[in-house]
Amino acid sequence: IYIDFYQNKNDMKYFELARQYGEKLIAIEPSSANYIHMGIIYRNGYELEKALECYKKASECDPDNMWPYNNAGYVLKIMKRYEDAIGEYKKAIERMEPGQSKTPFNNLAD
Fold it and tell me: How far apart are CA 59 and CA 62, in angstroms?
């Protein structure tokens, strides 16, 4: 909810609240899903290096999960680090399972 408030009201106090709750969640349960979620919070707050750190930790927790790589690719694209983004999207594609979202393909095509 707080990240939505931040995006709608452009008020940093809401980003800070979202960040605090996200970090508490990671302290309780440092899982791939929670690091991914924290990475999204940082990305939405334009703290892109911190977002990348979260996606790296997420991939360390679950190396077969495509989402940390896909999301890192997206952040690298925002940072105009296109070659690095392509590499992350390709890692995501390598980890895709049958029936899983085709988002990494879409991101490479964009």
Answer: 5
The dihedral region occupied by 101, where left means phi > 0, alpha psi between -120 and 50, and beta the remainder, is beta
Q: Would you say 32 and 68 are in contact if contact means Cβ atoms under 8 Å apart?
A: yes
pLDDT in tens, the chain (110 residues): 777 777 777 778 888 899 999 999 999 999 999 999 999 999 999 999 999 999 999 999 999 999 999 999 999 999 999 999 999 999 999 999 999 999 999 999 98
- Measured between alpha carbons, how far is 23 from 9 in angstroms, rounded to an integer? 22
Alpha-carbon gap, residue 2 to 79, rounded angstroms: 24
Give pTM, 2 decimals.
Answer: 0.90
Token pair of 91, please?
């890692």
